[in-house]
């Protein structure tokens, strides 16, 4: 948990009840929702991962649909944590995703616990998950590669390869504007895995521009416009700060 995330008072008790009676070889998940200022803002909307699943089906569902489970939503029995191994300290971004991939694959089943709630504080400008440095993209790519190896070691099949390829393809779409050379490494992975049918994600303006110049140029133009807007905002804030200083 981060310091500003919150657990429902009954969260851990609810999950312990599900893990008892012969389920200590399983991991427990739960409900999670975002809030920005106060926990009362959180809306717990069911997602496809909010169900009991075997580990491989859970990961395929998460990677194909771009779903997630907040790290604090898990409760992991000690034996499974020991089998999964320690946190990978080489990773700086998606280190939790890589770790819980190992945890899930080390379990017999993922048991969803309705009512086990986590409140996830979002919208912080300096959060690690929002980092867009080159090293952050390299860390994310390495995490995806490690997770792919873990899943394919358990089941190397068309469905698992497609799920891995889709995750790499999503990485390409997200990283291209920031680190195009890093995204090229992911392109080779997609090809080796047999390809993905995932289409570029963006709003109506991005889709119209993509149909004219292609998604890569559309992403570049989108990134350039965003950087220009950030520079204008920074100048405006600097101007107002100077005016306050001399009043």
Give a structural overview.
The chain has helices at residues 11-19, 55-65, 78-84, 95-105, 134-154, 158-175, 180-193, 204-213, 215-245; strands at 6-7, 27-35, 110-121. The mean pLDDT is 90. The protein is globular. It contains nine helices and three strands, in the order βαβαααβααααα. The protein has a three-stranded mixed β-sheet. 28% of the residues are buried.
Descriptive keywords:
globular, about 55% helix, mainly alpha, about 250 residues
Q: What's the SSE blueprint?
A:
Blueprint: E1 6-7, H1 11-19, E2 27-35, H2 55-65, H3 78-84, H4 95-105, E3 110-121, H5 134-154, H6 158-175, H7 180-193, H8 204-213, H9 215-245
Parallel strand pairs: 2-3
Antiparallel strand pairs: 1-3
Helix pairs in contact: 2-6, 3-4, 4-5, 5-6, 6-7, 8-9
Low-pLDDT stretches: none
Shape summary: globular
**Largest sheet at a glance?**
3 strands, mixed
Oligomer: single chain
What percent of residues are in strands? 5-15%
Rg over CA atoms: 21 Å
Q: What is the terminal separation in angstroms?
A: 44 Å
Q: Helicity range of the residues?
A: 40-55%
Strand order of the largest sheet: 1-3-2
Count of beta strands: 3
Order of helices and strands: EHEHHHEHHHHH
Structural class: mainly alpha
Mean pLDDT: 90
Question: Number of helical segments?
Answer: 9
Provide a compact summary of the structure.
The chain is mostly helical. The protein is 53% helix and 9% strand.
């Amino acid at each position: 948990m981060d310091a500003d995330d919150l657990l429902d008072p009954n969260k851990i008790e609810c999950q312990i009840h599900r893990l008892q009676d012969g389920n200590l070889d399983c991991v427990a998940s739960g409900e999670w929702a975002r809030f920005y200022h106060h926990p009362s803002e959180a809306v717990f909307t069911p997602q496809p991962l909010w169900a009991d699943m075997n580990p491989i089906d859970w990961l395929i569902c998460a990677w194909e649909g771009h779903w997630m489970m907040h790290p604090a939503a898990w409760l992991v029995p000690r034996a499974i944590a020991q089998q999964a191994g320690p946190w990978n300290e080489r990773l700086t971004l998606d280190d939790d995703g890589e770790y819980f991939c190992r945890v899930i694959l080390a379990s017999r089943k993922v048991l969803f616990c309705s009512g086990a709630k986590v409140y996830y504080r979002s919208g912080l400008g300096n959060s690690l998950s929002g980092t867009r440095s080159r090293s952050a993209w390299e860390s994310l790519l390495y995490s995806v590669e490690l997770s792919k190896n873990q899943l394919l070691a358990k089941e190397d099949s068309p469905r698992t390869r497609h799920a891995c390829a889709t995750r790499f393809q999503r990485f390409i779409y997200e990283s291209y504007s920031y680190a195009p050379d890093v995204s090229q490494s992911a392109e080779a992975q997609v090809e080796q895995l047999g390809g993905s049918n995932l289409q570029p994600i963006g709003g109506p303006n991005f889709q119209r521009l993509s149909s004219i110049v292609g998604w890569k140029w559309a992403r570049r133009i989108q990134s350039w416009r965003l950087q220009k807007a950030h520079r204008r905002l920074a100048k405006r804030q600097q101007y107002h700060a100077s005016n306050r200083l001399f009043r």
